[in-house]
Amino acid sequence: KIVKAGDKDLDGQLDFEEFVHYLQDHEKKLRLVFKSLDKKNDGRIDAQEIVQSLRDLGVKISEQQAEKILKSMDKNGTMTIDWNEWRDYHLLHPVENIPEIILYWKHSTIFDVGENLTVPDEFTVEERQTGMWWRHLVAGGGAGAVSRTCTAPLDRLKVLMQVHASRSNNMCIVGGFTQMIREGGPRSLWRGNGINVLKIAPESAIKFMAYEQIKRFIGTDQEMLRIHERLLAGSLAGAIAQSSIYPMEVLKTRMALRKTGQYSGMWDCAKNILSKEGMAAFYKGYIPNMLGIIPYAGIDLAVYETLKNAWLQRYAVNSADPGVFVLLACGTISSTCGQLASYPLALVRTRMQAQASVEGAPEVTMRGLFKHILKTEGAFGLYRGLAPNFMKVIPAVSISYVVYENLKMTLGVQSR
């Protein structure tokens, strides 16, 4: 890394002049980092300042852990680090700075699990200035489209089980697939997928733009938001994006539930709903959908941060880079926990969206529907369709990651 950073004439070696230039350049950077850590401006860094600096970047460590960091650099045993100790330790250790650790661990929504309640991606100043952010979004959208299409049969089965399964009609996974194929052939497994893919682009764009505006409104000067700020900004941005595209959500549910020959296509379905039920039908289930954003995003972020910090404390000896497998595992577990927390609200939302398409179903409120499910089916009834929902998480995450990485290379986005 030192040779790469200092080798100006690209001959694979450092001559004395290049080495001096590298040291001067590196020292400037180290001076800036030292000043940013030295909160008290007394020319020394103590344990509390390390704890505070990391907390500002969203990483929590104890004072004992901060003291361990200090001991590795402290030569004179004062339990503080002066500029000379800091420089001597880091000059020949070209380790990435703390924001670099945050970038490795950026909680990314490109691992598409088909949920709309995720907190948007955060992009650095550099990514925003160079225009890399939109390439990330395009790559993420393409990855989401492929992964949703591959897991669409499981998604449709989930919707059918949420709406039609009950104690008297105990729909299982094999039975559900058999029923779908018998009713409409193999192609029917992908009903509702077209609009599910179509809504990725507007939703991602609105969510990202709203998130950036809310960040400015919060007035933070941090490049990366703290967890509670991220939850607030992400939930609000999610609510704005969902409000904008919610009619597409209702259409997706109705298209997934339609019988063979019921509608000729998406527009026919929309016209049918509008003429028979009016504009209000496009916002059925809106309230439980909005309420689901906070538990999903909150638990997703909290679990991800807990797993991240546990890994950093235990395994981050030589590098803060966790590797692909760890990131995929953390993202999958945190997303799954978020889905578990918000699932009853998602089920109620789907049933409300489907009300008019189920013959003889009475018009009920969110509260009435909760009471009815608990009374007739018990608490288990609020988790109908959970099995196919969880079955699609690992394939969806894996497919979206592989497609995302390939699209990134095609679009010229550098991988860290």
Automatic annotation (TrEMBL):
GO BP annotation list: transmembrane transport
Record-linked Pfam families: EF-hand_7, EF-hand_8, Mito_carr
Protein name: SCMC2 protein
Single Gene Ontology MF annotation: calcium ion binding
Keywords from the UniProt entry: Calcium, Membrane, Metal-binding, Mitochondrion, Mitochondrion inner membrane, Repeat, Transmembrane, Transmembrane helix, Transport
Main localization category: mitochondrion
SUPFAM superfamilies assigned to the protein according to its UniProt record, in alphabetical order: EF-hand, Mitochondrial carrier
Species in which this protein is naturally found: Mesembrinibis cayennensis
GO cellular component: mitochondrial inner membrane
The organism's taxonomic lineage, starting at the top: Eukaryota, Metazoa, Chordata, Craniata, Vertebrata
